[in-house]
Design goal:
The complex is a heterodimer. Chain A has a single domain, classed as Ubiquitin-like (UB roll). Chain A is 12% helix and 31% strand. Chain A has a five-stranded mixed beta sheet with strand order 2-1-5-3-4, with no helix packed on it. Chain B is an alpha+beta fold. Chain B folds into three domains: 240 residues, 4-Layer Sandwich (Aldehyde Ferredoxin Oxidoreductase,  A, domain 1), CATH 3.60.9.10; 211 residues, Aldehyde Ferredoxin Oxidoreductase Protein, subunit A, domain 2 (Orthogonal Bundle); 191 residues, Aldehyde Ferredoxin Oxidoreductase Protein, subunit A, domain 3, CATH 1.10.599. Chain B is 43% helix and 13% strand. Chain B contains 30 helices and 17 strands. Chain B is globular. Classes of the chains: A alpha+beta, B alpha+beta. At the A-B interface, strand 5 of A face helix 21 of B. Bound molecules: iron/sulfur cluster. The site of iron/sulfur cluster has 14 residues of chain B, from helix 23. Iron/sulfur cluster (SF4) binds next to helix 23 of chain B.
Chain lengths: 65, 719
């Protein structure tokens, strides 16, 4: 189990940032991802592994109205 | 009506005139307000006092202060003493920092019967200031259509009769620009404010503020859209306001520290040039960039806010709209705005209405137009959205209210509350673009069912219940209005903070006070009531500040500086907040910090709340939200997101939904959500320094320095 934006999410084997965002349906282009406090650059999302028990923040920087 | 500009010129008849010597701008202020009473043709200057500058700052603050002094508690929106006040603000008119040309308009609204304010682009506010006036205060009511001309070059103000048809705003702007300009180049020195026939025939009239686009050779328009300001304008029989100022320069606002202004502007302009294409694509798509993400995250209002997405939304997606916009043209609504988000469709051939066959320039559509006129009415057709957008603007009716009220009428029609007999044959099913278009023409022209619809959702609810026997409770649930103003176009069901951001507002559910949906619902940055309340304190106060200054909100967070994600509060965009403080200090020569910035807003925000109280509004009951904004009203809505709602019942409410009927689930969910909303109100009021009934406490107004005797008096009466 991991935590994504404060909510429990099932951990999966070989989970990467990219796979997690896909699973969460987080399609927005401007997301700041932190895995256990560390900001992960977009260019690393494909390979960056997410270990079980991780705390992930995926903050959408959407300006809105 | 005059058939040529020459005829129009000959028809000009001066009813009153006033010559003045320009005071000149000093650190963002001229120190003078232009007062015009169109009942008795008084035209006179008023001094802007230091106290006004300190407490009310400018823009909306000045508007509220003049209106407070100009009307009585019993004044109605259509009484002669109601005012329309237009003011930019001390920063308004600088050309070095993007988004610095806004005007703020304040009046008593025909929709809410209380205070309305609207923030609008176009050249009028800055030109008004550089012509010598920090604000324009209009009172009275004329017997015949008049035009007010402010000639900042010659220092002359006139009230005139002009042979012009005020029905179509795009023509009024074009013709008056032509009338006043000495040549093509001179047109950029002119700005026109007008409404249209919709201002006469509905309660949702808007004001269009023009700005001349030299490359397109067209007078384009931005809208002061919310709350029926155009209805007041036309009720006063103002056909138009016109200002001319020909000496605009980078120094017109005469800042205390021009080098600092320039330096701060260069920094953000570089950011925009570097990052916009990879961030929000404001220069390519404008605010319509939100269409796709809103649909993807179930936040796009569909079918009168029942749902948050639709498979056909691709028909009006960000990219579909981008392909319709003319690219690589100047699209800023004020000089120097590098974000340039005002998109336009050129040479659009109209298929309906009085201008059928004409090829016109359509400003927009922006997100709100496409979401409201399109998705919320179940119409996913870009051509329809563009045409509806054009007609709303030229008739002078608010696209946001129009979208929400047509969606409401459609749901009533589908529920058999109204039928073809009542609508005069219009089959108002969701998705019927022809019927919706016809209804827009009827509203604009004051015909048929348009006469009822154009009065707004609140009045429609009353009419449907009283005259057609509809269930008032159901209408209350699905009628998306609060305080009498129609909701703007975001689905807030899954964001408690946004529910408050909509309904706990001063003027009604417009998202310009707080837009917290992603922070709350997706990012989960506001997990407690206290955090939500903090956001519902900070953001409305911060965002009020734009309206005091003459600023546009977009360059604050629609472009994100490098390193922002590493800051403590990325959602506040701290670097840009500091830019604003730097600019304010550089323009005015004052020395405020972040705390004082928020206090400047708090003063005006609380004053506006108290102004609402003075008019008989502004208490807790007026912050109630229709249940459609909080949760699923119908079984159909519940079933459409059954997995989500069942989970919430289980995990958040602690009820096992298995074995419950849908009706029981809807009821249990409602009890939970309504309870949370009430708790949120308590916590937010407490954070804002208000009583449980939403009245600012005496110690709060004392602390803010707005404890004038008449203000204290109003508060005491409500404690
Ligand atoms: S960002 Fe857009 S709306 Fe704001 S000032 Fe610039 S062009 Fe106008």
């Amino acid at each position: 189990m991991i935590e994504v934006n404060g909510k429990k999410v099932e951990w999966e084997k070989d989970m990467t940032v990219e796979k997690l965002l896909k699973k969460m349906n987080f399609t927005f282009p401007k997301i700041v991802v932190r895995v256990n406090g560390k900001v992960i650059e977009k260019s690393d999302w494909q390979d960056y592994p997410i270990p079980d028990q991780s705390v992930v923040q995926a903050h959408h920087l959407i300006a809105g109205g | 009506m005059a058939t040529s500009i020459e005829d129009m010129r000959k028809s000009r008849k001066v009813l009153a005139g006033y010559d003045y010597e320009q005071a000149g701008v000093e650190k963002g202020y001229t120190g003078k307000t232009l007062y015009i009473n169109i009942s008795d043709y008084t035209i006179k200057p008023k001094d802007v006092t230091e106290e006004m500058k300190d407490i009310f700052i400018g823009g909306k603050g000045f508007g509220l202060w003049y209106l407070w002094n100009g009307i009585k508690p019993e004044t109605k929106w259509n009484d002669p003493e109601n005012e329309i006040v237009i003011s930019s603000g001390p920063i308004g008119g600088i050309t070095q920092y993007p988004g610095s040309g806004k005007s703020l308009v304040v009046t008593l609204s025909p929709l809410t019967k209380s205070i309305m304010d609207s923030n609008v682009g176009g050249f009028f506010g800055p030109y008004l200031k550089f012509s010598g006036w920090d604000a324009l205060e209009i009172q009275g009511k004329s017997e015949k259509d008049i035009v007010v001309f402010i000639d900042g070059d010659k220092g002359r103000v006139t009230i005139e009769e002009v042979d012009i048809d005020p029905a179509a705003s795009h023509l009024v702007s074009e013709q008056l620009t032509e009338l006043l300009a000495e040549n093509e180049k001179d047109k950029k020195n002119i700005s026109i404010v007008s409404s249209g026939s919709g201002g006469e025939n509905t309660n949702i009239g808007i004001l269009n503020f023009s700005f001349y686009d030299l490359r397109r050779k067209a007078a384009r328009m931005k809208q002061a859209g919310r709350g029926g300001i155009g209805t007041v304008f036309r009720d006063k029989k103002i056909a138009a306001l016109a200002v001319k100022f020909s000496s605009l320069s980078g120094r017109s606002n005469n800042p205390a520290d021009p080098a600092k202004v320039a330096k701060t502007g260069v920094k953000i302009t570089r950011e925009i040039n570097k990052f916009d294409a990879e961030q929000f694509r404001m220069r390519q798509i404008g605010t319509a960039n939100l269409m796709t993400p809103m649909n993807d995250y179930d936040l796009l209002p569909v079918h009168n806010f029942k749902y948050g997405s639709h498979p056909d939304a691709v028909g009006i997606s960000s990219d579909t709209l981008r392909d319709r916009f003319t690219q690589n043209m100047p699209d800023g609504c004020w000089v120097g705005c590098a974000l340039s988000c005002c998109k336009a469709v050129d040479n659009f051939e109209l298929k309906t209405g009085p201008y059928k066959g004409d090829k016109v320039l359509v400003d927009g559509p922006e997100y709100e137009n496409a979401a409201g006129l399109g998705a919320n009415c179940g119409i996913f057709d870009a051509d329809y959205v563009i045409e509806a957008n054009f007609y709303c603007d030229t008739y002078g009716i608010d696209t946001i209210s129009t979208g929400t009220l047509i969606a409401f009428a459609m749901e009533c029609y589908e529920n058999g509350i109204i039928d073809k007999k009542i609508t005069g044959g219009l089959e108002l099913n969701f998705g019927n673009a022809d019927a919706a278009m016809e209804l827009i023409h009827q509203m604009g022209q004051g015909k048929g069912f348009g006469k009822i619809a154009g009065q707004g959702v609140r009045r429609m609810k009353q009419i449907f219940a009283e005259e057609y026997g509809a269930d008032p409770a159901f209408l209350q649930d699905i009628g998306m209005e609060n305080k009498g103003l129609e909701y703007s176009q975001y689905q807030a069901k899954e964001s408690l903070a946004q529910q408050g951001g909509y309904a706990m507002t001063n003027k009604g559910p417009q998202h310009d006070e707080a837009w917290l949906i992603f922070m709350d619902m997706v990012n989960n940055q506001l997990p407690t009531f206290e955090k939500k309340a903090e956001a519902l304190h900070y953001f409305p106060m911060f965002r009020t500040w734009f309206g005091l200054m003459g600023l546009c909100k977009l360059p604050w967070n629609d472009i994100i500086p490098e390193g922002n994600s590493q800051t403590e509060s990325p959602e506040k965009i701290p670097e840009h907040v500091q830019n604003y403080i730097d600019i304010f200090n550089a323009v005015t020569g004052k020395n405020i910090d972040q705390d004082e910035m928020i206090r400047q807003s708090e003063r005006v925000y609380n004053f506006q709340r108290i102004f609402n109280l003075r008019l008989g509004f502004g208490t807790r009951e007026h912050d109630a939200a229709p249940y459609r904004a909080l949760g699923p009203v119908t079984e159909e809505e519940y079933e459409s997101r059954i997995e989500r709602y069942d989970n919430q019942l289980k995990e958040d409410v602690g009820i096992d939904p298995s074995g419950m009927s849908i009706a029981e689930k809807v009821k249990a969910m409602r009890k939970y959500r309504e309870g949370r909303y009430e708790t949120l109100i308590d916590v937010v009021y407490d954070r804002r320094g208000w009583t449980k009934n939403g009245v600012p406490k005496l110690e709060k107004i004392k602390e803010l320095g707005i404890d004038f005797p008449e203000v204290v008096d109003v508060v005491k009466k409500n404690l």
